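Hey all, sorry for the wall of text incoming. These are the two entities for the joint prediction.
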Amino acid sequence: MARMKFLCDADRCIECNACVTACKNENEVPWGINRRRVVTINDGRPGERSISMACMHCTDAPCSAVCPVSCFFTTADGVVLHSKDLCIGCGYCFYACPFGAPQYPRIGNFGSRGKMDKCTYCAGGPDDTGSLDEYEKYGANRLLEGKLPLCAEMCSTKSLLAGDGDIIAQIYKERVLKRGYGSGAWGWKTAYREGIDV
Amino acid sequence: MTMLFGRGRRVFGAVLLFGFVVLAGPLCAQQSDQQPVSVNPTASSVTEDQLLREFDKVQGRGTIPDVRSYTVEQPAGRDWRHFHEVTLHLIGSVAVLGMLALLALFLLVRGRIRMDVGRSGRLIQRFNGFERFVHWLTASCFVILALSGLNITFGKRLLLPVIGPEPFAEFSQWAKYAHNYLSFPFTIGVVLIFLMWIGGNLPDRTDIEWIRRGGGLIGHDNPPAYRFNTGQKMVYWIVVLGGAAMAVTGYLLMFPFYTTNVTGMQEIQMIHGVVAMLYVAALLAHIYIGSIGMEGAFEAMGTGEVDLNWAKEHHSLWVEEELGRAATPTTLPPAPSATPAE
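and here's what came out:
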C-alpha cells in the first residue's frame, strides 16, 4: 500500500504560485481559503528561498488528535481527511497543526468559524465516490481516478513532488546527489518523524 | 586579379584555423577543470534546522492577505496537542474526580452538618431578591458553561461512544453556541458579585480563628463569623478571580487572532483549560455544602431567609450586627420574627 506524502524541494521552488492556482481551480476553493500557499523566506535578499506548503498529511496527525468531535480520519494511503458534516468549527485543529493547513471560511458572530477546509491530497472526503456533493464540499477526488494531486502535477520546476513517500524520497535523493546540494525535505521531520538522509 | 584573391583567402583561412587551434586548447581545459567542482547556488540560504533553532518557527512572506499563512511551520503545535490530549485530561480528571471523591468521603465520614439545637422557627433575612437573582444567574450560566466546556475535553471519550458521531457533533455544535453566548451573562454576574459582596469578603481577624479551628468542619465546633465566613470568602475570591481569568482568556479565544498569533492562542487556551478544571472542582465543593452538605444552608439562596438558630450557629457576629441594627430606633423595625440582641 502506498503512503502518500508531499515533498517541496526548496532549492527549486521559484515562487510561481502555479500550485496555488491549480489547487484553487481544481477544487473550487471558496474565497478567502488557500489550501496551498507559497511562502518566501528572506524575500529580496541573497539567499531568498520559497516553499510551497499545504497539509502534509502527517503520521499521527495532531489535528486529528485534538478534534473534540473526532471528525478526522486517515485513509489506507495515509491521507488525512475530515468530515465537514461533523466539524463544529472550534478551531483547535489550526492550533495543533504545525503547518497551518486548516482554514475556516466564515467569520460570523464573534470570531465564529465555519466548517474547516484544508488540502485533501485531491482525495475528496469521507464519501469517496466522486459525487457532486463530495465535489462541492471537498473538491476534486483525483486519487479515485488514479491521479496525483494537481499542485504537484502543475509545478513548473517539479520542485513540488507528490506520491508514495519512498518514491519521492528516492527522487529527491537522486536529485541532491546529482546536483551536489540540497536543503533537505522541509517539514518531513515534523510531519513524518523522519528526515531524508542524503 | 583572381589569383591574388584566391591566395589571400587561403592565407586568411590558415590564420583563422591556426588561431582556433591555439585558443581551443585553453578553452577546453577551462571547461574540463570546472566539471568536478559543483556550485551550490543556495549556499547562503537558510535551512529549516537553522530557522527552527533560532525562532522555533519557520516564517516568511507570502502573497495572501491572511498573515497567518506566512508561518510555514510551527512544531509547537504538536506540544500543544500533547498538552490538550494528555496533560489537560490528567489535570481535569484528578481535579474533578478527586474533588467528587473527597466530597463523597466527607459525606460518609462526617455526614450532613446538622444544626446543634434545632430550628427556632424564627427567620432572619440573609440575601435579598437582587442578590439571589445575581447568584442564580451566575450559577446557572456556570453550570452550562462548565458542562459545555468539559464536553470539548472529555466529550469524545465519554459521550461520543454512547450517542454516536452525528448526534454528538450536533450536540457539541449547540454546546459551543451556548458556551459562547452564555459567557456574557456569566461575566456580568461575576462582576456584580464582585461589587455586591466585596465589603463582606475582605479578610479580617475572625478568619485566623476560623482557619485555626478548621472551620468547624471536624467535630461540632462553630467558630464565630460575620456575614461571610472564611470558607465563603475563599469561594468568593475563587469565583471572582477565576471568573476574571476565564472571561479574559475566553474572550480572547472567542475573537481569535485579534491580539496575538498562533503561539499566543495556544497559551491562552492552555490557561483557559487549566483554570477551568480547577474552577469546576472548587465550585463542586461550594455546590455540595450549599445543597446537601449542610442543613439549613440552601434557604439562604433559595428563599433568602434563614432560621435564626442556624444563623447564630454559623454567623454569630453577623446576627448580632443585624439584630443590633434592628434594635436602634432610627431604623425601621424588622419583621416580627427578630428578637432583641442578647
